[in-house]
Amino acid sequence: MRVLSYSPRAWVSVMTLAGALFLWFAATSLTGWINPVVFPTPSETWASLMQIATTGYADGRLDQHIVQSIKLVLLGFVAAAIAGMPLGLWMGRSRYAEAFFNPVFTLIRPIPPLAWIPLAIVWLGLGDAAKVMVIWMAAVVPVVINSFAGVRSIQPQLIEAAEMLGVQRGRFVREVMIPGALPMIFTGLRLSLQSAWTTLVAGELIGAVRGLGHVLTQGSLDIFPSMILVAMLAVAFCGWLMTWALGRLEKRAMPWRTGS
Amino acid sequence: MKGADLAGPKTAPAHTDARRTRAARLDNYPYLRRALGYWGLSIVGLAAFFGIWWLAAATGLAPRQFLPTPLAVAEKFVQLLHQPFAGYTLQEHLWSSLQRYLMGFGLAVALGVPLGLLMGWFRWLDYVVAPLFEVLRFIAPIAWVPFAALWFGTGVGGPVLIIFAGAFPPCVVNAYRGAKFVDAYLVEAARTLGASNRMIVLEVLLPAAMPSIMAGIRVSAGLGWMSLVGAELIVASSGIGYMMVQAQSSINTAIVMSGMIAIGAVGGAIDLLLRKIETLAMRNRRRAR
């Protein structure tokens, strides 16, 4: 409450959101200015939310869809982080590794992750494996590039000082390279999480038996706008949740970075 | 006293000279030697990539239908240029994709950059728009697909909305940052020197925000291109993504890969073009100073 009473910005935010909700209500339920087939009313949306949360829709309850989607994203994302970070760090440290891997990367990099979806379906079918593969492809590129850039952004004086003091290799990696590259690594992780989430929703839209993308597809097949809206809000909520969690992790991992 | 040792020149000790008679000539050109080493490694890396691909395909380790050899993909690519697949040739698919892309991306830049700038300059607008924007931003652009199809159909309007949804946020955010964090001294100096409001906007604020705006446009160009591909995979009756989906359902891997190559090439070309424009814009700015 203290935040609310002191900051004019928070007040205006609350007022704006309340105003937007009221406008929505006024344009749909109150006046019927917008046809409910085109955009749902608030009460319909609430009813759809209740329906999917309790009895379920598109072969599952809301929590099952959300768990399925987040599970796949995390699988692909973690696998990409595990594979991508060491590769990026190595490429940053050794010019020879950069020379070896960079051309292949330059070749693959411009292909948007969503363009891998048809290939993944041909190779692995419509199941979870294809989605995890596409998410991995989507997530690994930003992780590698940013880890690489992170190592290169370390002040050369730091590296030279460590070398001069005869720091052992393992210790050098642990105490100079990784902490120095960490801010950029997290930038990469944030980018790749975003891209992984978009890719998953697209993959589920194309074919899935469960998951938020599947709810979207089913809603659009049934021409059920309020369910589409509920699914979109759920997509936004999960995206926000994962970004928030990564932000927490970032603070934990870099306690020396206060502020910003 | 080891100080002299550490600062001393790094010359090779004399006793290794005898072992390096043949390589000695290149040793006199350390830059050339390292450059050759890097080039060689790059070529080896590419060769390894295509070699493994070719081996897996040619030896039948992966079935030919699922993994055609690189050469087969290249042949298919060339064939697609004059033989229509899914109704059109490759160029025609690309052209209809590009038309949609330019519309959606153009709309995002035309609306997003001014909105971001105004939000940066007028605090009340920032306060009002920011919370709405924050809520909408987290919706993945692809999640707009059902509404896009419902509102605008699958021809041009639907995909354009999705491209717009992907390309709009970076335009707004970067223009906002560019406008918000202009050095206050610059504005005050201009005002003290008697510049009119219009002059301040056009001659001080806009040039100062330009680098950030250009960076945002480049990010949104990439996101827009990706959203286009997604949109065409799901709702479209022509375009490069549609071609790939058709090829996928008939398990024609060579055409799917040709589509990926075309998408990658066009996406890369768009990025390159914007980079060129960016450096040009920045160069003019420096000259004007």
Describe the structure using short key phrases:
heterodimer; A: 260 residues; mainly alpha; MetI-like fold; 2 domains; 79% helix; globular; B: 289 residues; 12 helices
List the helices and strands and how they pair.
The complex is a heterodimer of chains A (260) and B (289).
Chain A: H1 2-6, H2 8-30, H3 42-54, H4 62-93, H5 95-108, H6 117-124, H7 128-152, H8 156-164, H9 169-206, H10 212-221, H11 225-253
Helix pairs in contact in A: 3-11, 4-5, 4-7, 4-9, 4-10, 6-7, 7-9, 9-10, 9-11, 10-11
Chain B: H1 3-7, H2 24-27, H3 30-58, H4 70-82, H5 90-121, H6 123-137, H7 145-152, H8 157-180, H9 184-192, H10 197-234, H11 240-249, H12 253-288
Helix pairs in contact in B: 4-12, 5-6, 5-8, 5-10, 5-11, 7-8, 8-10, 9-10, 10-11, 10-12, 11-12
What coarse outline of chain A follows from CA principal-axis ratios? globular
Annotation field: number of helices of chain B: 12
Which stretches of chain A are low in confidence, meaning pLDDT under 50 for 5 or more residues running?
A: none
Kindly state the number of beta strands of chain A. Answer: 0
Strand content of chain A: under 5%
> What does the average pLDDT of chain A come to?
88
Q: Into which percentage range does the β-strand content of chain B fall?
A: under 5%
CATH class of the largest domain in chain A: Mainly Alpha
What is the total domain count of chain A? 2
The CATH homologous superfamily of the largest domain in chain B corresponds to MetI-like
Spans of at least 5 consecutive residues with low confidence of chain B: 1-9
Q: Portion of residues in helices of chain B?
A: over 70%
Q: Tell me what the CATH architecture of the largest domain in chain A is.
A: Orthogonal Bundle
Principal-axis shape of chain B: flat
Query: What are the secondary-structure elements of chain B, in order, as H or E?
Result: HHHHHHHHHHHH
